[in-house]
């Protein structure tokens, strides 16, 4: 079911039921100076959309529920700013060994790498670190900038972007997270992080308010 824009009469009916419910269809029609048959489709819509509940021999009453929105309607309204996480940022010369420690300490899957000016230069994922570590010693001597995915190949987003656009970027690039950036004169400052977990949480929030 899609999200409904209620018309004037449907809003009037909603107000009447809110103030007077439970109330029969006949009584609602009387108040509006209309025939019962005229408002029948409006009552059907309001009931199906979850605004009103109807009980036989009792009448209509206000459900207090939010109207049912389709997942698609709910998702298109969601913007990154409302579903972001704190970014974990490291500098380019941090060793692979220390980066692995950061990954565990901060409990994240991806680290964003910045230069001396705190501008984004790259991304290091857990598999990047694992790949470098297998069968090798001296991880404390390898700086992360040697193994990171570097600019301009980093996929990023802005806080006003939609979650849908972020989800698409994640799927297209086969990545788990994106830095949220703000443009500065000489590059991009990392302001936040959006991950597949954030997207999943947003998805779940669409149904949490409803009886499913
Ligand atoms: P993992 O490698 O742990 O499965 P990802 O799937 O996120 O994590 O990363 C896959 C590859 O993509 C890694 O090599 C990583 O450096 C790179 N990567 C991760 N995030 C981004 C990003 N936002 N932009 C560009 N490349 C990224």
Automatic annotation (TrEMBL):
Q: Which domain of life is it from?
A: Bacteria
For the keyword Plastid, the answer is: no
- What keyword terms does UniProt attach to this protein? CBS domain, Repeat
Matches recorded under InterPro entries: CBS_dom, CBS_dom_sf, CBS_domain-containing, HTH_11, UCP026546_HTH-CBS, WH-like_DNA-bd_sf, WH_DNA-bd_sf
Q: Does the keyword Repeat apply?
A: yes
PROSITE patterns, per database record: CBS
Against Gene3D superfamilies, the record matches this protein to: CBS-domain (3.10.580.10), Winged helix-like DNA-binding domain superfamily/Winged helix DNA-binding domain (1.10.10.10)
Q: Which SMART domains match?
A: CBS (SM00116)
List residues of the CBS domain: 83-141, 148-212
PANTHER family annotated for this entry? Answer: CBS DOMAIN-CONTAINING PROTEIN CBSX2, CHLOROPLASTIC, TRANSCRIPTIONAL REPRESSOR CCPN
- Protein name from the UniProt record: Transcriptional repressor CcpN
Which lineage? Bacteria, Bacillati, Bacillota, Bacilli, Bacillales
């Amino acid at each position: 079911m899609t999200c409904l824009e209620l018309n004037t009469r449907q809003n009037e009916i909603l107000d009447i039921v809110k103030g007077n419910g439970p109330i029969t269809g006949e009584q609602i029609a009387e108040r509006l100076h209309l025939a019962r048959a005229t408002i029948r489709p409006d009552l059907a819509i309001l009931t199906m959309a979850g605004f009103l509940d109807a009980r036989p021999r009792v009448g209509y009453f206000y459900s207090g529920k939010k109207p049912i929105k389709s997942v698609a309607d709910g998702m298109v309204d969601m913007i990154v700013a409302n579903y972001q996480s704190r970014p974990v940022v490291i500098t380019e010369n941090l060793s692979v060994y220390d980066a692995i420690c950061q990954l565990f300490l901060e409990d994240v899957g991806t680290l964003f790498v910045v230069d001396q000016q705190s501008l984004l230069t790259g991304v290091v994922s857990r598999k990047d670190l694992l790949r470098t570590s297998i069968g090798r010693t001296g991880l404390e001597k390898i700086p992360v900038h040697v193994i990171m995915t570097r600019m301009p190949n980093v996929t990023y987003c802005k806080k006003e972007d939609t979650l849908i656009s972020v989800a698409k970027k994640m799927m297209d690039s086969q990545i788990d997270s994106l830095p949220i950036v703000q443009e500065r004169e000489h590059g991009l400052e990392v302001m936040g992080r959006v991950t597949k977990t954030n997207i999943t949480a947003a998805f779940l929030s669409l149904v949490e308010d409803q009886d499913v």
